[in-house]
Amino acid sequence: MPERRPSDQGTDPLVKGAVRTPAPRAAHLDRRRPLGKGSGMDAGRAEPKVAPSQADAPAPAKSTAAPPPPAEPERPPVIQPMPYVPKHPARAAAYIATSALLGITQGLGTQMVGANLFQIQGSIGATQSETMWLMAAYMAPYASLALALVKLRRQFGLRRFAELSILVFVVVALLNSFARDLQSAVILRFIAGISAAPLSALSILYMMEVLPREKKLTIGVSFAMTNLTLAMPIARLISPTLFDIDQWHGLTTFELGLSMLCFCGVYMLPLTSPPQAKVVDPLDFVSYPLIAVGSGCMAVFLTLGRVYWWFERDWLGWLLVISIASLTLAAVIELNRKYPLVDIRWICSPPILHFAGALIIFRTVLAEQSAGIRGLFSQIDVTNAQAMPLYWVVFACVLAGGALSAMVLKPGREPAIHAVALAALAVGAYLDGQSTNLTRPEQLMVSQGLVAFGGALFLPAAMARGFVAAFKKGPNYILSFVVVFLSTQSLGSLFGSALFGTFVQIREKFHSEALIEGLKSTDPIVAERISQLAGSYAGVLGDHALLKAEGAALLSQATSREAYILAYNDAFMAVSALAATALLALTIHVAGARLMKQLQPAPALQTQSS
Fold first, then answer.
1. Of 83, 344, 457, 563, which one has the fewest beta carbons inside 10 Å?
2. What pTM does this model have?
């Protein structure tokens, strides 16, 4: 039986009867209707209207029912799915286009800076390490804000939430055009991370709006995740042209145009809004700031730890301490709430930990494409403009993976889909591990296409399975699932990139030492190579000693480049081994589950034997 909320008491016929009927009738109603959930408040309101003669009458329900605790929080209203209303095909296509626009716009906000780190340095007068603060500032609020937005849009209405969030995003995109130095750019990127947080959720909601219930977790999830994944190749395809137009401000102007298109789409195509309900609890204002501080500090730590090195800066350690302390305190508060903001016990259950671990492994493997190939290209001097044919292949493979997922995704098929995705990721990373200093984008099309295809195939199945697990527990557990999913996507991607980059730097030192040990100036081959490299300066330097020093410096640079290429190959092979290990573990898990199911006797046989 659904609970009555205070806002519903004015329409409760029992409350009306208690107010308007004579005293004997009210007493009869009290004896017939025992107190239950939500009825303590109704009875308290009706009691002053009872006639004095009723005080002598017996009240068994009142004497046997224990009064509710005064500080007991109200149970959050159960989230009910909205009924499906078919739309005209043209209008449905507009909703799908808006979903794609929102997803790509949100993804470009995170990918634009990462795809153009070296070009942005000159535009804002910053070093490479300082430019990484732009990514850290964006991810700090973005990592946790989706948790608060889920409740806010339930409290204040979906349409109002959508229009206001897009309007804020437009204003922030406009302000980005005025960023002239590193400090102003970092501040605006922080605000952009706040304003962009609702876009991914809106993209998913717009895709779900036009689909019947039975297709939301198959076609809807597949296309929604594909929209979010397309941002990576698109960012690298359009960046060279935008930089040629107006450097850093070419990117911000393009983002402003996309935000205005998003605002038009959201304003002209409203979503079906569920009933508003009071779901924000006073303790949420204590728990959420702790979660936000913990997640934000962790995001900054993971983004900048590799750049400044993990043990070289004291403030990195303090960031980690603050993050752990804040998240621990938030978990203690949530564990002692009857209706928590986040169900920590459910999140820490073995199935959800298994789900989160699988997503983190997936994000670590995908770092091979987002961070690995970008770093390899920087070592072999390949720019985004030269790699455009490769990114067109990646774009096409993402579309192919999303389309295949939409066709084959059904409940129960997730393990098979994950197996195919992991196999593609393992093979693609293995092929990338054969790179040399002569490797060019044309040689990486097959391998990167496999990685993109596997990534587009893996994510929809994982999200659909997580939604099913949350719905089995109850609709109100959707918020906890959103926390798990978005945390593994934002913090998981940062963790994967940090782990990948750290592994590359460690292996580079190893290979650099091994290569330098074999380079001795007394070796005739080494001396000849130094002389050849110094020949490029022979026209401007007449001193033989200076020529030899310049040749040795060029040889050192070439050695460092070769060491980095070998380190990236090691990282690609490690990613391939990780994907293959995950595939083996998945195969063993599925085989074990099927074997246990076959060994269990059928119910009919159990009944006959008994």
1. 83
2. 0.76
